[in-house]
Design goal:
The complex is a heterodimer. Chain A is mostly helical. Chain A has one domain: MetI-like (MetI-like fold, Orthogonal Bundle), CATH 1.10.3720.10. Chain A contains 16 helices and no strands. In chain A, helix 5 runs parallel beside helix 9, helix 5 crosses helix 10 and helix 14 packs antiparallel against helix 15. The longest helix of chain A has 31 residues. Chain A is globular, with a radius of gyration of 25 Å. By secondary structure, chain B is of the alpha+beta class. Chain B folds into two domains: 162 residues, Periplasmic binding protein-like II (D-Maltodextrin-Binding Protein, domain 2, 3-Layer(aba) Sandwich), CATH 3.40.190.10; 209 residues, 3-Layer(aba) Sandwich (D-Maltodextrin-Binding Protein, domain 2). Chain B contains 16 helices and 15 strands. In chain B, a hairpin with a 2-residue loop joins strand 10 and strand 11. The longest helix of chain B is centred in the first third of the chain and has 29 residues. Classes of the chains: A mainly alpha, B alpha+beta. At the A-B interface, helix 3 and helix 14 of A face helix 3, helix 15 and helix 16 of B. Chain B: This is Multiple sugar transport system substrate-binding protein.
Chain lengths: 314, 470
């Protein structure tokens, strides 16, 4: 009886926990339905049409866009280029971020200042960053060639093929401070006693780093790899802004080596006015990204070490 | 499904699903819709208030809100205030011009009432019936009649199959014959070269030779470019002009195909390859720092630049050293026919699904024949679209007077660039030309192979456009 009274005395929202749950998650569910699921469905429908983005003269074309994409040499070439860019940029970003984090995890004077300096590029707006690098890379007036000239190199046309690809990699690496901060946080979470124990056992600094530190921070490295791959595959603003005019719309001036998949998508949408085909390209790309992510996820069993036993939790 | 399918992707105003529906289901659906609409009203009201969508009364029941999509520096706040004061029943909701946003508004059947539009290349939009024929309005107007308009406006005409004839679907704001040349006499004198004639056109081949002589290089860097062709702004218009000057054709008679392997087309392509390989001016492989020739020209690092009359507007505020040395020359020629077209011709149009066309026409009259048009003409930033305003072009400074005279003579050679309605791809020509020319410049392919590749790729785009237009 007392229990019943106590139960009845509780606020109604506490008595109906499932209802409360749904009430609290409803803003997200609504947002997801209206802002994610609906546009996705809309885009999927567009991918089955020949819609040109502005006229109501369009029709269903079924899977024609998808079939055409399978034989589109330009789209496939841009995909291969994007995979190559990702294969180069992501390891450099992760290793670079880790290397910087290790350096800035030492007891140095003014270490906070150094951390700030290395992190600053990550908060520079991407457009400003691309414009700045465009000036740095300029063949005749850029500071990079002015420096290289001092050691009798150049001038190098950085913004045209084949150097445009390297310019894009350099620009990408400039922003590795963001990864550095995450790696730094991970390094600071490594128990010092474990490293000391290894040293007591005779391990060198490299062995400690290789066999103790890296395995402990491997979940963070895994996170960096996965998010890095997804971000690198979707890169678009940098190649567009590094192009000749620096105007996003001028896809024609994007050098061939930096004409990546998303640039090709942009071209199909906003230059060729093929919204249907562009949408199909995006859905196929989604599957490619999903497959790569799943592959990396699968491979993580071999190299990612969790400090808690996930199997035991199940 | 026919070509104009029922699928409601683009807001065609048709129901999402067809089929029989019971009265009971209709009523229940209507009740649901009404409830949904009631729930959504505050949200929609907020949207409407924030966007200022046209269509409804705004404060005063007789006031119409006109949604105008233009550029702030072309249709200024002062112009809008002046127009509103002269037309108390019209309020303007100004939207900054953005082609992607415009397309979205057109696609959703919620277009602006008055919009910035381009004359050269308008046939694709007209074939899709996106804009309103202005002839009925012109017939009633006293300030904007066909006989008032310079021939540049013909690019806005569309007879149902091709541009250049039929009703007007827009009016040009101002324009230029964009192949004309501007040069710096001091750089010619420094190189001991006779300056270009301001009355007789030079041939493209001679121009390239002079460009080579004017180019100065040192240590792998270019100190002075002999000739700039505004490469980053597009290659299709000048190449089409070169083909027309030789008596060639860009499109087949039915406008569905191109052939860039003709002798005329190959000669034009070869000129561009020679120009780039000679390194006399910025190209896609040696881009200008800011993608335009102006800063190089003003820095006296470029001797000749190929720009229209509008370019003269840049020099008014410059030093005497610049003002006293610049001069304008006629468009060069490749072949026997002297043709000097506009490459662009920005103007305005009234979308076919605009809600306030009469009020939009009032703005058209004000903008194209009223104070803003006179301001534009007097500024020298382009040639007016009305014959009567030609005399307003500035002639105060010596270079302005010289440019005025050259421009007056050039007008008689104004021609119209070909325009296929099936080129739906907005920048399709330029993208293809740039890509294939780069390959030819790098000697990965020959000019003939480039011509064949351009033909194939552009024909593919035309085929896609035909598929979209139907």
């Amino acid at each position: 009886m007392a229990t019943e009274r106590a139960r009845r005395g509780r606020p109604s929202w506490k008595r109906h926990s499932s209802g409360t749950f749904y009430l609290f998650v409803s803003p997200w569910v609504l947002g997801f339905a209206l802002l994610t699921a609906l546009p996705l469905g809309y885009a999927l429908a567009i991918s089955l049409t020949n819609f040109n983005g502005r006229s109501d003269r369009w029709r269903w074309v079924g899977l024609r866009n998808y079939a055409e994409l399978m034989g589109d040499a330009e789209a496939i070439a841009s995909l291969v280029r994007t995979l190559a860019y990702t294969a180069i940029a992501v390891p450099l970003m992760v290793a670079g971020g880790l290397g910087l984090a290790v350096l800035l995890n030492q007891r140095l004077k003014a270490v906070g200042l150094f951390r700030t300096i290395f992190f600053l590029p990550s908060v520079v707006p991407i457009v400003a960053m691309a414009i700045m690098w465009k000036l740095i890379f300029n063949r005749d007036a850029g500071i990079l060639n002015a420096i290289l000239e001092k050691i009798s190199i150049g001038p190098i046309a950085w913004l045209v093929d084949p150097n445009a690809f390297y310019a894009l990699i350099i620009l990408t690496l400039w922003g590795l401070g963001g990864g550095m901060v995450i790696m730094l946080a991970a390094l600071q979470g490594v128990p010092a006693e474990l490293e000391e124990a290894a040293r007591v056992d005779g391990a060198t600094r490299w062995h400690v780093f290789r066999h103790v530190t890296v395995p402990i921070i491997s979940p963070v490295i895994f996170f960096q790899v996965v998010t890095g791959i997804i971000a690198s595959l979707q890169i678009i603003i940098q190649p567009l802004l590094l192009a000749q005019t620096g105007q996003v719309g001028n896809v024609g001036e994007v050098p061939e080596t930096t004409h990546l998949y998303m640039v090709q998508v942009y071209q199909e949408f906003f230059v060729n006015s093929r919204y249907g085909y562009g949408s199909a390209m995006l859905f196929v790309f989604f599957l490619v990204i999903l497959a790569i992510t799943l592959f990396v996820q699968r491979s993580s069993r071999l190299w990612v070490h969790y400090t808690v036993d996930r199997e035991a939790d199940r | 499904m026919n070509a104009h399918s029922e699928f409601p992707l683009v807001g065609g105003g048709k129901p999402m699903f067809y089929g029989r529906i019971s009265r009971r289901r209709l009523l229940s659906s209507s009740a649901l819709l009404a409830a949904g609409a009631a729930a959504a009203t505050p949200l929609l009201g907020a949207c409407s208030a924030s966007s200022g969508r046209s269509g409804g009364p705004s404060g005063n029941s007789k006031t119409v809100t006109l949604t105008v999509m233009y550029k702030t520096d072309e249709l200024t706040k002062a112009h809008i205030a002046d127009f509103e004061s002269k037309n108390p029943g019209i309020k303007i909701n100004f939207v900054e011009y953005d082609s992607t946003r415009l397309n979205a508004m057109l696609a959703s059947n919620e277009p602006p009432d008055f919009v910035r539009a381009v004359a050269v290349g308008s046939s694709s939009a007209n074939a899709q019936e996106l804009y309103t024929a202005l002839d009925p309005y012109m017939a009633k107007s006293s300030v904007l009649k066909p006989e008032h308009l310079l021939s540049v406006n013909d690019s806005f005409r569309w007879d149902g199959t091709r541009s250049g004839q039929g009703p007007y679907y827009g009016i040009v704001k101002d324009w230029s014959q964009d192949a004309t040349l501007w040069y710096n006499r001091a750089l010619f004198e420094g190189a001991k070269i006779q300056p270009l004639s301001t009355t007789e056109p030079i041939s493209y081949d001679e121009l390239l030779e002079i460009g080579k002589k004017l180019t100065k290089k040192s240590g792998g860097k270019t100190q002075v470019y002999g000739l700039g062709v505004e490469w980053a702004w597009g290659l299709s218009a000048p190449i089409m002009m070169m083909i027309l000057q030789q008596g060639g054709q860009v499109y087949s008679a039915d406008l569905t195909e191109t052939d860039m392997t003709t002798p005329e087309a190959l000669r034009a392509l070869r000129w561009y390859v020679d120009f780039a390989q000679a390194g006399v001016g910025p190209t896609a492989l040696d881009p200008a720092p800011d993608g335009a020739d102006l800063s190089l020209f003003l820095a006296k690092r470029m001797a000749i630049t190929q720009d229209g009359y509008w370019y003269g507007g840049n020099f008014v505020e410059e030093s005497d050293e610049i003002k006293n040395n610049v001069a304008m020359a006629p468009a060069p020629v490749m072949g026997d026919k002297r043709i000097s077209p506009t490459y662009v011709g920005w103007g305005a149009a009234i979308p076919s699904k605009a809600k306030h066309k009469d009020e939009a026409w009032k703005l058209m009259e004000y903008f194209m024949a009223g104070p803003p048009s006179e301001e534009r003409a007097k500024s020298g930033w382009g040639i007016p679209a009305l014959k009567a305003q030609l005399t307003m072009l500035p002639q105060e400074l010596p270079y302005q007077k010289q440019a005025y005279q050259t421009q007056q003579a050039e007008l008689q050679y104004a021609g119209q660039l070909p325009d296929s309605p099936y080129m739906v791809a907005s920048d399709g020509w330029n993208t293809v030309l740039d890509k294939q020319l780069q390959r030819a410049i790098k000697k990965e392919i020959t000019v003939e192979q480039a011509g064949k590749a351009i033909t194939d790729e552009v024909n593919k785009l035309l085929k896609q456009g035909k598929d979209q237009i139907g």
